[in-house]
Specification:
Elements (H helix, E strand, L loop, with lengths): L1 E5 L6 H12 L2 E4 H14 L7 H9 L14 H10 L3 H15 L5 E5 L2 H5 L5 E6 L2 H14 L6 H17 L12 E4 L5 H17 L1
Parallel strand pairs: 1-3, 1-4, 2-3, 4-5
Length: 208
Amino acid sequence: MIIALDGPAASGKGTLARRLAAHYGLNHLDTGLTYRAVAAALLAQGLPLGDEEIAISVAKHLDFTSLDRSLLSSHEVGEAASRIAVLSKLREELVSLQREFGKKGNGAVLDGRDIGTVVCPDATAKLYVTASPEARAKRRTDELLGKGIEADYNDILSDLHRRDLRDSTREDSPLKPAEDAHLLDTTEMDIDSAFKAAVEIIERARKL
């Protein structure tokens, strides 16, 4: 069983995906971390972000089972990841690796920007998780402040608007709902409500 969750940054899809994976006993992959891992490796080694062949070489040596969210969550890495995400051949390599991950074991829950449209178009269930930019900015601000990290709501809101525009207008695998995805707007939901709604959607999809 493959469950695909797509949506913009800070929509809650990552938290939801991890909870769904635990609920169904499936592997979980935050595909955004695969881009962040490549970007982090390039930055650490002082390598150019625009050299696609070098980026692909780094990608081929990634271990998707040991991606450390805490080490890859910095703003610098996120910005670099957004820049390399537009490299078409790198995307092809990572998509191939992501698909292979989904085929292991009993299946997986994958979350990202193009899971239902590109990575796993035949997924058992597809959810497009979204929320208003203001709600997403508040969540990200609260999350960072909760970790003792300085954060400004207005800066984060502006950054989310920029990322949404860049992700939705890029030529290769733009952020958009799959035609058969179920929309889950979490603007007014807490994680428990979102989880319950997601399980209901998935259970309906499994019966089709």
